[in-house]
Amino acid sequence: MKLPVTTSDKPPQGINRRRLILRLACLPVFIALFMFLPAGTWAWPKGWLFILILLVVISAVFFILHRVNPEVIVARSRFHEGTKGWDKILLSLYFPAMLAVILVAALDDGRFHWFPVSWSICIVGYALLLAGIGIVTWAEAVNKFFEVTVRIQTDRGHSVIDTGPYAIVRHPGYIGGIIHAIGMALSLGSLWALIPAGVASILLVVRTRWEDQTLQEELNGYKEYTQKVRYKLIPGVW
Length: 238
Hints:
By secondary structure, this protein is mostly helical. 64% of the residues lie in helices and 2% in strands. It has a two-stranded antiparallel sheet.
């Protein structure tokens, strides 16, 4: 159920879909360069496997969202006016932390072999990675307001979403993001990469608290929603 507000419900305009597809296609190339240069070799099997799986998963996610909620693809293609200042600071730390997961893993497993792990650990990592991406995609599929940044989207008729994973926890995208970060480190075969993954996870927890406070204060119907869905991230815990 969506609790309506009195503003318009127009989707964001101006995105070039061909450009978006090009960016998605170039992402694995960017990650390959970011991974294999610090690894010091192109002969890094875990790195190649990661890129292959990432390419397949990104393509699948794009296809699913294009079918069930294309508006969220448009919304997430750029930053929008009205983003909270504190969120800009958090994102300026979060994105480098996520990139550091790949960098540290490349230095660890690809070059220096600080703490070698077995392929069984990598399998666990991929299970977590896919689970995290799955949760985020589920949230994106039912929530057209799932933008990159935190803002009250009055220009888009922002309303409360309480279906899908939002009927279980208030911020399913963030728990999915935390699982994704941990899974990424392990799938690349690096326990050291869990350090930046942990930093990214802490930032998401902070963002969860601050975003929830913002929504309670500024979004019509959100306080009532919190009475029905009590937990922010983990059912029965918080």
